[in-house]
Amino acid sequence: xxxxxxxxxxxxxxxxxxxxxxxxxxxxxxxxxxxxxxxxxxxxxxxxxxxxxxxxxxxxxxxxxxxxxxxxxxxxxxxxxxxxxxxxxxxxxxxxxxxxxxxxxxxxxxxxxxxxxxxxxxxxxxxxxxxxxxxxxxxxxxxxxxxxxxxxxxxxxxxxxxxxxxxxxxxxxxxxxxxxxxxxxxxxxxxxxxxxxxxxxxxxxxxxxxxxxxxxxxxxxxxxxxxxxxxxxxxxxxxxxxxxxxxxxxxxxxxxxxxxxxxxxxxxxxxxxxxxxxxxxxxxxxxxxxxxxxxxxxxxxxxxxxxxxxxxxxxxxxxxxxxxxxxxxxxxxxxxxxxxxxxxxxxxxxxxxxxxxxxxxxxxxxxxxxxxxxxxxxxxxxxxxxxxxxxxxxxxxxxxxxxxxxxxxxxxxxxxxxxxxxxxxxxxxxxxxxxxxxxxxxxxxxxxxxxxxxxxxxxxxxxxxxxxxxxxxxxxxxxxxxxxxxxxxxxxxxxxxxxxxxx
Length: 503
Description:
Layout: E1 4-9, H1 20-28, E2 31-34, E3 51-54, E4 57-58, E5 61-62, H2 66-78, E6 82-87, H3 97-106, E7 111-114, H4 119-126, E8 140-144, H5 158-162, E9 167-171, H6 177-186, E10 194-199, E11 207-212, H7 216-219, E12 227-231, H8 238-241, E13 253-256, H9 264-272, E14 276-279, E15 284-286, H10 292-299, E16 306-309, H11 312-324, E17 336-339, H12 342-349, H13 364-370, E18 380-386, H14 392-399, E19 403-413, H15 419-425, E20 432-435, H16 438-448, H17 453-456, E21 461-464, H18 467-475, E22 482-483, H19 489-501
Parallel strand pairs: 1-6, 1-7, 2-3, 2-6, 8-9, 13-14, 13-20, 16-17, 16-18, 18-19, 20-21, 21-22
Antiparallel strand pairs: 4-5, 9-12, 10-11, 10-12, 15-19
Helix pairs in contact: 2-3, 11-12, 13-14, 16-18
């Protein structure tokens, strides 16, 4: 079976700038061949079992040659694989995508190009610099800085660009900045023309240096790629239009440890506030070894008075098995339904089920508090939950004379994560790591190793969703920097914002 290659533009760095078609290509790929400039966070869209190969160059030094990359794409396609070639920015804007496409044609390999958001206009936008503006520039020119403007033979005519009235955007020009500015000035450009250099644009690590053609080289001495250079009067607008760096969590790299499926809400809220999010899934949700105990309980629903859910996962699997057993939500009539918190209640609500009972304090003890006025003698409780969970609720209910049946609706396991993958995710170290359950904390320690955990999290603030999770973190020998006053994702978000606001 013949394979196919998708040349996908990954955008300038912010994962949110990946196109929908690019995301679809990643999700279906058997093999992802990605550049150094493509945000690692995008790899979370790829299937866990897909092959992932980094071929990008770092600081001008290529990991493997362009010829080797071309051959790699051809080889993988000839193996029958769907290949996603993930390239920073846009494949056809100084991305050598055209060269790769030509080699694919020669090798008779089918391919598609998925354009991406070019760093040429996106990076300046995140720095508060529009590349065109009716009052400042009606045109924009993109050029590469890989040439030496002082060499005798050159493709770029710097004498023409020096008199150009529009905005000039220079890709890959950090190492040649001094010679570029010198050439522009030498050919008649005003030495006081505003200019800016933007490094790691659209990311939490974004740095912006503003000056003129005269002093920008000295202001950026020692700065390394990747960076974009902007020359023109539009640079004057940065002070007024700089929106990205004013976001409350700008510059903060935050690691989250939820399951891949459940990371979305927390990730999206953090990103919206300007943070760079690193996803380190420490929990994998799996079905129980057998559905029979849960199915049997569902067949005996009329025997129960209460249905208590202590997690959204428990609700999701319970309702799925309800349908698999030929039942529906009407069979829950007569049951008092309790949920440990808003997220669990929201999972019921997706099927049109309104919970009768939800505690003020979103943990097991709160659920018991909500039941304290009820006469539980002889009442029957069904609790679908994880294979391993705290027994405080079942035990306390039994002490009050209730009959409790706990059935396994799912189990949590530590996902497979290669040591080199974990090291990549933790480089550079995050400013903060979040734990949303005791399992996320204990599993993270298992992944890292008890001997290395203190060193790995040195200087990293730990954010806990609530007191039970905090207790587990401390038992693991770690310190909790912040604890949410309300044990929910919104509560955790508020605590994170307050923490950084006060620092």
